[in-house]
Amino acid sequence: MTTPDILCIGSVLWDIIGRSPSAMRAGSDVPGRITRIPGGVAMNIAMTLANFGLRPALLSAVGRDAEGEELVREAGRLGLMTETLYRSEDLPTDSYMAVEGANGLIAAIADAHSLEQVGDKILRPLSDGRIATEAAPWAGPVALDGNLTRDLLARIAASPLFRAADLRVAPASPGKAERLLALVGHPSACFYVNREEAGLICQTDFADAGSAARGLVQRGVHRALVTDGGRMAAEARGDDLRTAQPPEVLVTRVTGAGDTFMAAHIASEVQGMVPDAALSRALHAAASYVSGETPQ
């Protein structure tokens, strides 16, 4: 098997997204568009990494149902390595449903039950020789998402399979942010969160991304990148703090923006960009995505 540039571990599923140009509230019934596209945090990150010229491998659970077969074919077409997927015979392919209006995300439901149920089976390629072994663990970057259970994240934090890895971690949603507590204190874990998620992890309210990034580092996170919509973003590691302002754009979609930011930042660093340039490039990539300029 070809050696990947990066591992993307977490949710690989179908996104069903309803979007309307109208402002919405609970109970709204408005015209719009409904799309079904490959999604999930790990999948979104992998697709963006491929767009930046990297070769990502997917470690996740995908059913052998019709939806799963179609999803794997599409992933392969997009240049993602799918040989590392755990293919379940009896579990359905996961899915995510969201409704977005002119005023942002209205509601979303993530059905990642199959991923949660298979547990550490998705990690087999890290020990069976397809990617690595216990004696020769994976030493490259890993994009890890919070759709994994708190127990599995804790096992990953302590596992010798990841002792040489460069862990890049995303919470998947504010509702799952506290799952990342299992990785606080890990010597290489870099958290990619928004200001709200940072507050949930630290159990406090932050006024801006800079204070949120510092708060995470003080909490024990090795490195933290915090976004705040169109406001200033920040990166903290140790005593160092850098900030950058994202470009102003018209927001046409929000689902997947954080994944795009994270993937663009990882790709920029893998390709040798200095920290300030990597942060700026990631913010521009996310802005291009939410504006609709980046194809979906």
Structure commentary:
With 296 residues, this protein is α/β, with parallel strands linked by helices. It has a single domain, classed as Ribokinase (UDP-N-acetylmuramoyl-L-alanine:D-glutamate ligase, 3-Layer(aba) Sandwich), CATH 3.40.1190.20. It is 30% helix and 26% strand. The protein has 8 helices and 14 strands. It has helices spanning 41-51, 66-77, 113-118, 150-158, 195-202, 209-219, 257-270, 275-291, and strands at 6-9, 13-19, 33-39, 56-59, 61-63, 86-88, 95-101, 104-111, 141-145, 166-170, 190-194, 223-228, 231-237, 240-244. The strands form 3 sheets. Strands 4-1-9-10-11-12-13-14 form an 8-stranded mixed β-sheet. Strands 3-2-7-8 form a 4-stranded mixed β-sheet. It has a two-stranded parallel sheet with strand order 5-6. The two termini are 28 Å apart.
Low-confidence stretches: none
**CATH topology (fold) name:** UDP-N-acetylmuramoyl-L-alanine:D-glutamate ligase
Rg computed from alpha carbons, rounded to a whole number of angstroms: 18 Å
Give the CA-based shape.
globular
CATH architecture: 3-Layer(aba) Sandwich
* Backbone structural class: alpha/beta
Q: What top-tier CATH class fits best?
A: Alpha Beta
CATH superfamily: Ribokinase
Question: What count of helical segments does DSSP give?
Answer: 8
Please, what is the average pLDDT? 93
Proportion of beta-strand residues? 25-35%
Distance between the termini: 28 Å
Give the helix proportion (percent range): 25-40%
Major pleated sheet: 8 strands, mixed
Order of helices and strands: EEEHEEHEEEHEHEEHHEEEHH
**Strand line-up across the major sheet:** 4-1-9-10-11-12-13-14
Counting DSSP E segments of at least 2 residues, the number of strands comes to: 14
Domain count, please report it.
1
